[in-house]
Amino acid sequence: xxxxxxxxxxxxxxxxxxxxxxxxxxxxxxxxxxxxxxxxxxxxxxxxxxxxxxxxxxxxxxxxxxxxxxxxxxxxxxxxxxxxxxxxxxxxxxxxxxxxxxxxxxxxxxxxxxxxxxxxxxxx
Length: 124
Fold this sequence. Notes:
elongated, four-stranded antiparallel β-sheet, mainly beta
C-alpha cells in the first residue's frame, strides 16, 4: 500500500474540517442491523411499514457532530433521525440447497428478502 494514500473517510473528514464545515453522522438501528448515515444518504433497510413518500424516524445509537461524540442513552433519546421512504424492493435471490450422500436426500429452497430504500433527510 502506498504511504501517501489516505483512507477515503479520513480524507473526507479532514477536508471538511479544513473548510470550516463539521462532519455530522449517526449510527442508527434498523431491525437487527446498524447503519452509518448522514443527511442525504440513501440506505436500504429491512421492510418498513410505511408507504412511499412517508417519513419515518430511526433510533440513533451514536451521534458524531464534528469533534463531539455522543453515546449516552439519555442524550440519544433526544436525537431524531428522520428518513423519507423512497420505495419498497426485494433483495437478490438466495438459493439454499441441502444434500446428503448415499441416502437420496436433497432439498432446494429459495429466498428473497423484502427491503425498503430510504433517504435520510434530517439529523437533529
